[in-house]
Design brief:
467 residues; Phosphorylase Kinase, domain 1; Immunoglobulin-like; 24% strand; alpha+beta; single chain; Transferase(Phosphotransferase), domain 1; five-stranded antiparallel sheet; 21% helix
Length: 467
């Protein structure tokens, strides 16, 4: 692939400059010479992909274009074209100016309820349209919501969206960002629009309180909270949250899809009623898996000055048993394992520091994501230095490819700081790591592995039946 400094043309588009760079590609500012329209061009660096990853990643890149490209909505980023030029694969899309919603909430700030509700109503309008057209986003989070200078939003990054007509994503595959994933995503079940609405509920909770309802410093901790733990009402953390708004959020965060809002329209109607101080027409159905409420208690907080540890908010892809995709590989036996007595994994308390209310406004920025990368433009369109939050490993990191026989073991690395379901590939800091594999009906396996910088270490575990 040509270097960004000498790339002048891509398909019919003139390249005006680079906007940002990620692990698997580059975002350029381009120009359609025929209609004189500036646009963003997301280019996948297929030449950098491992041969085993190339096919699935190219499929997912094409699916992003297909999913968003079939949608035409004022609150969804517009896709103009999918194209291939030599070894370069690209998506031409709307050039957006604004600020990622993530930037507003990452410092523990929270929104005035009126601002939060206005944003979420726009989001629900977009999702209702997408769902009606057979598209489930599956990765709704503040990083994928752009707040424009006029305070209207755009939903971006349909990279793991599911099309109703598509068979690309297998049943049993878990995709999403842990803190915003629904219970059915964690369990690898087939998802529908109600999973997106759960993620909207998580996001609304965070906008109003500055905290995630299922925060944790490890994948395992977050998964346990989403699947099992009760929810602290947001009004316990922000006195401006009314009982009516509490009820809407708790219904959205019900563990069972059948107990949530069944579509975006119903969610929006309930939210509009809550904004006016009116309750929902009927209470949420009760069930033993419903979003249980803990009254009168806020989440544990760290000591003053102690920064809470948080799991990385990258999108996770964990394949079902026997499957292999861009985040998993089935590997050959190379590492020795041993059966040990079950060890308790750490489950630290989640928390957040003090916070202040936040009102919308501020600089004009451009935010485009590619492999986790973020780029920004200042006022007047002058390019600022890209803020790189890339999916590629840090200089002192490597990977472990973990497989279990039989597949499907829960993987906990370093007490659950990293994890997934085997087979899975995990990025970890270089150095020694403790691996634990657990599966019902089998003895737990524990082993140590040394990961050199930049290396990919295969680890295969033969599980022994406990029957």
């Amino acid at each position: 692939m040509s270097d960004s400094t000498d790339l002048q043309q891509l398909g019919k588009y003139s390249i005006l400059g680079e906007l940002g760079r990620g692990a698997m590609g580059v975002v350029y500012r381009g120009l359609d010479p025929f209609i004189k329209r500036e646009l963003a061009i997301k280019v996948l660096r297929a030449d950098l992909l491992d041969k085993n990853e190339r096919g699935p990643i190219l499929d997912r890149f094409r699916q992003e274009a297909q999913a968003a490209g079939r949608l035409n909505h004022p609150h969804i980023v517009a896709i103009y074209e999918y194209g291939e030029d030599g070894d370069q694969v690209f998506i031409a899309m709307e050039l957006l100016r604004g600020r990622e919603l993530k930037e507003y909430v990452q410092d523990g700030e929270y929104f005035d309820p009126a601002d939060a509700i206005r944003i979420v109503l726009q989001l629900l309008d977009a999702l209702g349209y997408a769902h009606a057209n057979g598209v489930v986003h599956r990765d709704i989070k503040p990083a994928n919501i752009l707040v424009q200078p006029d305070n209207n939003i755009k939903v971006t990054d349909f990279g793991i969206a599911r099309l109703e007509s598509s068979s690309l994503t297998q049943a049993g595959t878990m995709l999403g960002t842990p803190s915003y994933m629904s219970p059915e995503q964690f369990m690898g079940q087939r998802v529908d629009g109600r999973s997106d609405l759960f993620s909207v509920g998580v996001m609304l909770y965070e906008l109003l309180t500055g905290e995630k309802p299922f925060a944790g410093n490890s994948f395992a901790t977050i998964m346990h909270k989403v699947l099992k733990e009760p929810i602290t009402p947001p009004s316990n953390l922000n006195l401006l949250v009314t009982p009516e708004l509490d009820a809407v959020i708790l219904k959205a965060l019900s563990k069972r899809p059948d107990d949530r809002f069944q579509d975006a329209k119903a969610f929006a109607e309930a939210l509009t009623l809550a904004k006016a101080g009116r309750p929902m027409p009927a209470p949420a159905p009760a069930s033993d898996l419903d979003a249980t409420v803990v009254q009168g208690a806020a989440p544990a907080r760290p000591a003053r000055g102690q920064a809470p540890q948080a799991v990385e908010e990258a999108t996770v892809v964990v394949a079902p048993a026997g499957a292999a995709n861009d985040s998993t590989q089935v590997i050959s036996p190379t590492a020795k394992t041993q059966v040990v007595t079950p060890a308790a994994s750490a489950t630290p308390a989640s928390a957040a520091a003090g916070r202040k209310p936040l009102l919308l406004g501020g600089a004009i920025l451009l935010a485009l994501a590619l492999g986790g990368g973020v780029v920004m433009l200042g006022k007047g369109g002058e390019s600022s230095a890209p803020v790189a939050v890339e999916a590629k490993p840090a200089a002192d990191a490597g990977w472990i490819l973990i497989n279990s026989t039989p597949p499907g073991a829960v993987v906990l690395v370093d007490g659950g700081r990293y994890g997934g379901v085997a087979p899975v590939r995990l990025e970890v800091p270089a150095g020694a790591h403790q691996i634990v594999l657990r599966k019902d009906g089998f003895h737990e396996i524990e082993a140590s592995v040394e990961v050199p910088r930049g290396a990919l270490i295969p680890f295969d575990a033969e599980l022994v039946s406990s029957q």
